[in-house]
Amino acid sequence: MSTDLDLAPAGFVRAIEELPLVDHHVHGAVAHDLSRGAFEELITESDRPVPEWMTQFDSQVGYAVLRHCAPVLGLEPHCPPEEYLARRARLGAEEVNRLLLGASGVAHYLVETGYRGDEILGPSGMAEVTGSPADEIVRLETVAEQVAAGGCGAATFAQAFAEALWERTAQARGLKTVAAYRHGLDLDPEPPGRAEVTEAAGRWLGSGGRLSDPVLLRHLIWTGIERGLPLQFHTGLGDPDLDLRRADPLLLRGLVERAEPSGVPLVLLHCYPFQRHAGFLAQAYPNVFFDVGLGVTYSGARGVALVAESLEVAPFAKILFSSDGWGPAELHHLGAVLWRRAMARVLGRFVVEGEWSAAQAMRVAAMVGADNARRVYGLGAREEGTR
Questions:
Q1: Contact, 189 vs 223, CB < 8 A?
Q2: For the chain, which terminus, N or C, has the lower number of CB atoms within 10 Å?
Q3: Rounded to two decimals, what is the model's pTM?
Q4: Per the database record, which ranges form the Amidohydrolase-related domain (predicted)?
Q5: Is the backbone of residue 74 left (phi > 0), alpha (psi -120 to 50) or beta?
Q6: Which domains, from first to last, does the chain contain?
């Protein structure tokens, strides 16, 4: 039985497979060896231990590892998990990273460093392993918590945060907020007043802990918009620390409209299961961009559906590629290979059915895979070269 890939124009699938990508939202790969338990806990968004009666390999992402990562490590596709993990252990983390990251075809990484950054490779480490440029995305909440840890009063918090943010982002390509985790995206879209910020800072600094006050989160976001770099928002799926009901990107509509005159790109990350909501926002507002990274990885063989839905109503210049890989290099590799396969299937069918030309399909693949990110983040033309 023929497939969409079989029916695609000659050379089209290969051209997408060889397309140099810009991974506009990614974290570092883990540089140490992993036990089976540690590996399985890192290929799920759950933060709970894996029950003894099941394995995370029995999932879309687990099967994708065995299908697409095993051959890169010199094994047959669909090999048993035990064989895969034994091979991984023999090679060692350094070689596994070199093989899987190298096979992903990513030509430029934008590495977000705010989550457990001391446990994974930073931008320089990713660049060293892959030979590809790697720039930083700075998390707003992490900078604010570092300011608080350094000691400051409530009245001086706003100024101290602004100064720290400008200094911290001197070489950064963008910013990110995890307000969806800390409170939810149902925030008042207006910037808070100075007195509100001081009062909220006093409460937070007095109690300690991570920053979750909605007034301060709004202040961080608006300070980030003032900074002028592209601002990424976590939306959609995540670990149980997140209330998915309050991570719908449609909740940001008021903020999107309020921020529109600034011209700052607002980039919606992941979006699953709200990819159609994100597509609407990207169509309606010139300052909104989005990706379906992470969702494609965790949906594995079903990632084609996510990619297809992301292409329904959004202008193609508003969609970006990301893997959101964190930890095992398998997640970085799958983010790229599953996206490529999904794009080849979806766009190839458009061509076969006569809806698009092959040139149009390839143009869209290049836009989403790299060109849009180069424009949004100011990466310039194709200085990265080819794979």
A1: no
A2: N
A3: 0.95
A4: 149-379
A5: left
A6: 4-33+104-376 (3.20.20.140), 34-91 (no CATH)
